[in-house]
Amino acid sequence: MSKIKEFYEKHKVVIKYLFFGVITTIVSFSVFYLTLWIGKTVFGSLEQGKDSAKYLVTNIIANTLKWCSGVLVAFYTNKKWVFTEADQDVSTGKQLLIFSEGRVITLLLSLVLQYLLELLFAAIIVGDLTLLGITLSAEILGTTAALIIYSVIEIIANYYFSKFFVFKSKAQK
Q1: Which residues of 121-132 are buried (b: 16+ CB within 10 A; e: fewer)?
Q2: Please, what is the end-to-end C-alpha distance for the chain in angstroms?
């Protein structure tokens, strides 16, 4: 038991960051699907097909609200429970602004990486894969592999950006 406690004490910031990252993901995905549901129920946006203007607008709104809710939840949990040794003299507004700027940068990075990785995997993966009786298309495999890779890179980049630019301790200055 003492080894676990020792491990936790040594890595508690990263463990908390990952834990609250899962919470943030659950909240942001819930906002996304709730927005899509509202779009479908209230505006009938999904019945008209994915190429309709209503669907496109609903999807843009859902993704925007997903991103905003994710940034706000991540900021709050990071400030309150993860980076507790941050300099308290820095205003919350300034921290939120820098945090949001960092998230925009990693969002743009992930969009570029997603595109490039999907191109790469489209060239590498040929043919479908069947596992346990389920056939996965080469397109789904490539997209999933790209998603996993760029998500890991985005998580690491967001962690370091938060630790060294947003929630710096006085000792880091």
Answers
A1: beeebeeeeeee
A2: 36
The mean pLDDT of the chain is 89
Count how many Cα atoms sit within 13 Å of the Cα of residue 26 in the half-sphere of its side chain: 6
pLDDT digits (tens, 9 = 90+) for 100-111: 999 999 999 988
What is the C-alpha separation between 144 and 107, in angstroms, rounded? 17
Q: Which among 117, 134, 113 is positioned nearest to 125, based on CA atoms? A: 117
CA-CA distance, 55 to 46, in Å (whole number)? 6
Q: CA 38, CA 35: separation in Å to the nearest integer?
A: 5
The pTM of the full predicted model, rounded to 2 decimals, is: 0.83
Question: Quick one: which of 95, 85, 107 has its CA closest to 165?
Answer: 95
Side-chain half-sphere exposure of 66, counting CA atoms within 13 A: 16
| CA-to-CA dists, residue 122 to 19, 128, 139, 146, 154, angstroms | 33, 12, 7, 10, 21
